[in-house]
Amino acid sequence: MPISFHHIRHATSILTLNNKRILIDPMLSEVDELAPVPFTRNYRKNPLTPLPVALNIFEDIDAILLTHRHFDHWDKKAMSILNKHIPVFCQPKDVAAVQSAGFKKVIRVEDCYEWEGIQIRRVEGPHAPGLTGKLLGKVSGFFLSTVTDGSVYIVSDCIFTPAIEQAFKDLKPDIAILNASEAEMIWGTVITMTRKDVVNIAHISPKTKLVVVHLETINHCKLSRAQLSTFLREHQLEHSIVVPNDGEILSLSF
């Protein structure tokens, strides 16, 4: 059965699964309302691209899924306008901060949690290698599975590691959402997945439909859609990996 995935911008999307609309990593600010990411190679204000939808589409949301609290995934605009009474699923270390923003149903996902026929499993990973990873902290991906609609692995800003590779082999997701923008710090450390990681995942999990997001919106994200599409064509993967535009609604079959 097709799964609806409305890609808003960057890491923000609305996933419709088991008839529930789940808002992923909401960053709802308009162009230039946010500061540049510090310690990066330019000082352009964020976001670089406008919100492609009206804010009222976020009124009809059943839950929020928060992978981590960096401002490009959870901004003050989202905290101020989103319904404070719907569930917010997040990693344990973020519970207190989300509660302090006024949200009343903050659900800590330690390992697995079941909600409305959807099993939510947390898959923790580093945001970057080495000391940069310690500075940025760990982030969480989430594997959502259902009886009727299949499974979706939201990998988030976890970089590609042997543990993430093993997660793909063990979980065998029908669909995976990859944040692969080659975001880079000023000293050269890449803190998201890369185009090569996307190809590696396509090879280790060939039955998984891959969707690549987190592109062209934040000042330290280097990889463009055009560059990624060219790379995928060179590896004969342009028809099996989806790179949605901002605001695009996908009907994902597997």
Could you name the key traits of this structure?
single chain; 254 residues; alpha/beta; Metallo-beta-lactamase, Chain A; seven-stranded mixed β-sheet; 6 helices; globular
Determine the mean pLDDT. Answer: 97
Helix- and strand-based class?
A: alpha/beta
What's the Cα radius of gyration? 17 Å
Unreliable residue runs: none
Q: How do the helices and strands follow one another from N- to C-terminus?
A: EEEEHEHEEEHEEHEHEHEE
Which fold name is given in CATH as the topology? Answer: Metallo-beta-lactamase, Chain A
Q: Just give the CATH class.
A: Alpha Beta
What's the β-strand tally?
Answer: 14
Specify the biggest β-sheet.
Answer: 7 strands, mixed
Q: Tell me the count of domains.
A: 1
CATH homology superfamily name: Ribonuclease Z/Hydroxyacylglutathione hydrolase-like
Count of alpha/pi helices: 6
- The best one-word shape is globular
Distance between the termini: 8 Å
CATH architecture: 4-Layer Sandwich
Description:
The structure is a single chain. This protein has a 7-stranded mixed sheet. It has 254 residues and is α/β, with parallel strands linked by helices. It contains 6 helices and 14 strands. Helices cover 19% and strands 28% of the residues.
